[in-house]
Structures are given as structure tokens and as C-alpha cells.
Here is the input.
Amino acid sequence: MSLDRSQLLRGTLDAAVLAVVAQDDGYGYDVVRRLRAAGLEDVGDASVYGTLRRLYRGGALTSYVQPSDEGPHRRYYGITEYGLVTLAGARVVWAEFSARIDQLLDVHPEVSA
Amino acid sequence: MTRTAHVPPAAAAYLADLRGELGDLEASEREELLEDVVASLVDATDAGEQTPVARLGTPAQFAAELRAAAGLRPREAAAAPGGGSWARLRSRGRALLDGPQVRSGLRVARELAPLWWLARAYVLLMVAARMLEQDFSVRYPFLPLLPDATGTAFWAAVVVAASLAAGVWTRLRPARGRVATAVVLANLALLAAAVPVAEHDIRADAPALGTVRVLQAPPAGVTRSATSGGRNAGLTFRGKDLRNVFAYDRTGRLVPDVRLYDAFGHPLDIPAGGSRRRLLRGADGRELGNTYPIRLAAPGTGRTLPAGRGALGTRISPIPRGAALVAPVRSGFERFCSDNPGACPARP
Here is the structure.
């Protein structure tokens, strides 16, 4: 297949992570699991952790530590105002972009006909 | 700091390696990154999932992916903030080692490793033999004697088994950290030790100087004379006993194994050298004591030492072609005049 899922994922992971965290705050591995549950099975742990850190540094995410009695404490990430704006922008870009690609690839022939 | 009290051992080892991979990052940044990983490892272990490496890849792969996603510099670039030439050289070398040819070459080398394990055992045996000043087989000079053939077979079996076991062991449990460094250093030392061993073997392979050649039987008359005359008292020159004789050919080359006889066919022997003397035997098995230069065997080896300093210390120059001169014969009168300068008339 000429379309590489991991390449596509690389370009869209920021938006996917923002969307998952926007639904509910989560720690790193929790975000990984929710992405996988949503159908992105091949998403890598390290990619998600790196993305979370980058978005956090960029101000799209906030973070706080939740102490745990049983296991190690967990660093939770939540979305910021700036993150919501970024996510909204990503939604627009994706809707427009995916529509163009759909059209080019003739995914819905009955619509374009 | 990351609390690792609740982390299972496999996960703790993985975290330690990962911490090393991220060693160039600021401590707070590194520890916050690791917090995510700790939670992931603990959750995965609780859920009875695969080992950390099977699930996350090696620490190096994980760290590389993490850096890429987090927008951090790769390790090599981080190691050379000022463009240090050593760091640049190292990253270039690493890139070179990652090349496809090198990789396939390393794969082949890995498959051939048992050969290297055998070679390692041989070098070890040779080094031990040389350090303990053991002898080497006369017939097969590349084989040490520890202290004899049986001992050699025993020690060879022991060392080969140990080397193979060590090889298999490091295959199954790759050494890490200081142990890995020690292994590399030990192998380098063995490689260095292989140089004198190879030199020994190459020299042993060359035409053996000490091999006793069987010469033609001396002429019948000579044998008779030798038998009847036996060993004489030795050769003397200007009243001193000679210890050796060196014969050179016209071009100035030392001639080996010259056999000297007097006018009556008596062999001119020098009874020197004792039991260490290399003696040639005639076809009839009789020792030939009149071959020169006399050469001695190195103690315990059966190998013959070079002919000694003697005449070898001086340079024997070749005789030019056509240089043979017939000395002018002086008459008795001329000799008288030169001996008694005042008695003869002065020449014009």
C-alpha cells in the first residue's frame, strides 16, 4: 500500500492526542490506551509520551500529579484554552484536507457524480 | 524524582537504561518524561502483558521515538553542542557502522564466531606456553608442549571448552556496562597477543634451520680415514684452539655445512659445542663432526640458533672479477738488497 499509516499518524497525532485529552484528563499510558481503543492500534507509546510533552511545553496542555497509594504517582494532562483553540483549528484543517483527499481518491462516487 | 519503589525488576532495569539514553536532557525534563513511562510499565505488568522490550522496543529505540515526538534533539546532535570534533567523529562513525555492508559483515562475523572462539583458545595456549617458557613441538613448531603431547591435548581441551563456554554464555546473556567494557578490552588484548603468536608460527613455517639434513655419504676413503683416525684434538690457528670456522664464497656469502678434510682425507673436527651441537649425519648414520660453521641448538627446542657472531660480525666483501693476481717473484739479489739497504748500489 502506498499510503503509510504511520506517516499519516505522525501528521495527525497532535490533533488526536488533543482530542482524547479534551474528552477527559489522562496520564500518558491512559492516553495511549484510549487512542488504541479508538482504532489507532499501531500508535507507539513513546510517540504519545513525546507528543504529550511537546504539547505541554507549547502550552496546549496543563499537567498535574495525582498521588497513588498502590503504584507510582501519575502525571495527568488536561487541555488548556490554548489547546482547545489549537484543536478547533486542527478540526477545520482536517475537515478541509480530508474532503479534498476524499474527492481526489473518489471515495464517495455517488456524491461526486 | 521518579519513585520506583513499586516498579517490578524488569521494568526498573528498562527505566535505568532509558534514563541513560536520555542522560543529556535536563534532569526535571527527563524525570517528568520518565513518569509517564513508569506508569505505563506498571500498568502493563499488572495486566500481565509482555516484557518491556517486547512491548516498547529497546530503550534506545524508545528514546529515539520519544525525542522525535517531543521535538527534542537526537542524542548525537545533543552530544555536540559546540560542534565538538570528537562528538562529530563519533556520530559519523556510528552512522558508518550502521551501513548495510557493515551490518551484513557483522552478521557473517557473528555466525563465524565459533571460529574466533577456537582461535582465542589457541592464542591463550600459545601465550601461556611462551610465558611459562615451554618448548614447542620439533615436528610441528606451531604446537606448544605443555609439557608434552599428552599435557598439550589436555590443556587444549580445557581451554577450548572454556572459550566455547564463554562465547555461548555472552551470546545468551550479553554483557552490559563495565562487564562489556572488560570483555572488549580482554578481546583487544588477545588480538594484540595474537601478533607475536602469528610471528612465531610464520617463522616456524619457514624452512626450518634446525632440521637435520641427511647428507651424502662421504667418499669411501674418507670414511675409512675417519674411522681409523677418529676425532682429532681439534684445529689450531697461531697456537690457539679454534672454536669455529666460517667459510665464505667468492661473493661474500657464508657457506653453510662446509666439510673440511686434510690432504689425507682426515676430517678436520673441532670437539666443541657439547650436547647442544647440531650434528649432521651421513647416509650411513655416522655423525659428521667436521661440518662448519658449528651451530648450537636453542635450549630445549631442538631448533638451531644462527651461526653465531663470529665472522658474521664482520662484513666479508666480495672479490671483484679478474682480481686474481700472481705475486711477482723477487730474485735472491733483490731480496738481499731490500733487507740490507746500505749494501747495494743506489738505483738511478
Remarks:
- Chain A has a mean pLDDT of 87.
- The beta strands of chain A are 26-27, 61-66, 74-79.
